[in-house]
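Weekly modeling sync, notes
Attendees: S.R. (lead), two postdocs, one rotation student

Agenda item 3: backlog of single-chain predictions. S.R. asked that every request posted to the team notebook include the full sequence so nobody has to chase files. The rotation student volunteered to paste the first one in as an example of the format we agreed on. Action items at the bottom.

Example entry:
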Amino acid sequence: MTTFSLLLAIAILSYLIGSIPWGVIISKSFFGFDIRTKGSGNMGSTNAFRILGVKWGIIVQLLDISKGVAVVLLAGLIGEGLSFPNATGFEDLTIIKFSAGIIAIFGHIFTVFAGFKGGKGINTAVGLFLLISPIELSIALLVFVLSLILSGYVSLGSILASLSMPTSMFVRHNILGVNMPSYTFLIYADIFIAVLVIYTHRANIKRLLQGTENHFAKLQLIKIGFLMPKNRENK
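Predicted structure, as returned to the notebook:
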């Protein structure tokens, strides 16, 4: 097969794997309803935790993360030895892996298997960064946990965590002097994903500003007045 054919195969497989709607599959198979008809109307793990319970929420989360991991591994297997015009200076195979991960995220958000109404891509992105940028991912997870403890808002934690990825990379490279090959490519890719996360959370941002966003009161271990939900009971 030609290089183009192999790259096209990686793209198609990445989209299809990313499109697997685990939240919908599990809710229909074990609970008899489409999870998108309840709660926030999202098929992701946050709504699964809220509607299906902790055990099934964890299962959905791990399965969605596995999609990001799977496409990176698959891209590495199929793309091994492929070469194409590359002005970034970054290793060809890593670009293929990163691109496969981004395509999988789009697959999760716009899943062909569920009427193009999917999730928000966070867990699939976690799977991508787990293999591509583990240090930045660790920092992002810390930001997420701290945000959740202080606010109780999963959406706010997800947004801040996504923004921390390019920020931590910038600090490590430009201030701490950590050598990162093809830093420019990586930081722009991280910025792109952060913008995508903000886009998928646009309704959440509106509710956060209005004080009506879904709130996990039990996870807000440190109560801060201005971060408490308004005009509704904590959920």
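Discussion: group reviewed the output briefly. The two ends are 53 Å apart (CA to CA).
Action items: rotation student to repeat for the remaining queue; S.R. to check formatting next week.
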